[in-house]
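Much of our argument rests on the idea that a fold can be written as discrete symbols. Part of our work consisted of pairing the sequence of a single chain with a tokenised description of its backbone. The amino acid sequence and the backbone structure tokens for this protein are reproduced below.
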Amino acid sequence: MSHIVTVQDAVTAFEPWMEPTDAELDAIEQEMPAILAAVDLLDAQIVTLDRVPSELDAQRIRRARRRLLAARRELANRTTAASLPGGAA
């Protein structure tokens, strides 16, 4: 049995337009604190999936949720401040 594969992927796999642009990489870097905070929250929630959360687990989830909200707030404020004309905040 012979498999039929397309050559299109091999030809375009290394085209420059497939790589993230510098602007996209900068945006990801700016969002990284929020991304890492979301990962911490998911980790805290995953730990409690197969058991009843203890007070320590609940505290860890609350702390992770607060860090995520703070990171999102900071990101939103930075984005809003950068988009205002004249540099006014």
Residues 56 and 62 are 10 Å apart (CA to CA). Helices lie at 8-12, 22-47, 55-83.
